[in-house]
Amino acid sequence: FSRWPGEITYPPKIDADMPKNERLPSHLEFFIAEENIGGKQYVIQKCNKIIIGDRLTDNKMERDDYRFHDVFHIAFAVHLGWSPVLRALLHLKRKSVPDLDENQDGARAILIEEGVATFIFGRGLECDLFEDVDHIDYDLLKSIQEFVRGYEVERCALWQWEKAILEGFDIFRKLSTSRKGYITADFDNHTISFREGDDE
Predict the structure, then answer these.
(1) d(CA 176, CA 66)
(2) End-to-end CA distance of the chain
(3) What is the pLDDT at residue 122?
(4) Cα distance between residue 151 and residue 6, in whole Å
(5) DSSP SS3 for 170
(6) Regions of the chain with pLDDT less than 70
(7) Are residues 58 and 139 in contact, defined by beta-carbon separation less than 8 angstroms?
(8) Nearest Cα to 86, choosing from 77, 95, 94, 78?
(9) Does residue 41 sit in helix, strand or coil?
């Protein structure tokens, strides 16, 4: 049932009981764009017109557009209610509960999430970025579940991971084609969408 549920029902939000300033909001809009800075291509990301995070490159000799990978963190937050990376970028770490702040929102959790993003991206490169794919291989989903064991996201079902991965790659493909645009994340209704456009 974790893989093939009788009914798609999202569990309560992981941060539902936290103070408002430590919860993911109802929705956010991000602007992600590739820019030429000093003769080199970087990706910048904004939320509410404020730059968040560092300028990104592919960090690899062979260009593969990994610079746009933050879309996966957004998709994780939308479908899993989990993204220590996004919490750090948006200053939404759960400081009021020291154990959560240290163990679920801390550096190791961030590394785990980045590892998952890198892992699924590598698999995606082998599978045409999951274009025209309806389902993810069971072994990939089980590997991810093993990878995150011990962290709060382990409670999430395999179908949630599948939706996060497929929709994350859908946005990634659109963004890598247009090189810039807006991503709207609705954390209450678990939807994510993309539209082309310049920074307003």
Answers:
(1) 9
(2) 44
(3) 95
(4) 26
(5) helix
(6) 58-61
(7) no
(8) 77
(9) strand
